[in-house]
Amino acid sequence: MKIGMLSTGIYLPEKVVSAEEIATASDIPVEVIRDKMGISEKRLPSDVDHTVEMGVRAAKKALEKAKMDAKEIDLIIYIGEEYKEYPLWTAAIKMQEDLGAHHAWGFDVALRCGTTIMALQVAQAMMLQHADISTVLLAGGYRNGDLIDYKNERTRFMFNLGAGGGAIILQKGYEKNSLLASEMITDGSFSEDVLIPYGGTKHPLTTEQIEKNQFKLDVMDPAGMKERLEQKSMQNFLKVIRTSLDKSGYREEDIDYLAILHMKRSAHDYVLEQLDLNEEQSIYLQEYGHIGQIDQILSLELAEKQGKLKNGDVVVLVSAGIGYAWGAMTIKWGVDEE
Question: Model-level pTM greater than 0.90?
Answer without folding.
Answer: yes
